[in-house]
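Board notes (copied after class):
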Amino acid sequence: MIGGPSDEHILNAIALSDVQNVFVGLYGDPDSQHNRQIIDATGRLSARRRIGVQFYQAESTSLW
């Protein structure tokens, strides 16, 4: 999960990269505490650097 303290290095790497857009999968209710942490963390990321953030429902994909 992006958003926990152990994942801060991932957000830092994205902020320092040339990435222009980030797509973030949310599982379940977007207003759940877990998903709010993810949304808040990506909000901090986009505040550090202009990065487009798009959210999608993870269960809508059929990757596996």
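Comment from the instructor: The first strand starts at residue 21 and ends at 26. The chain has one domain: 5-60.
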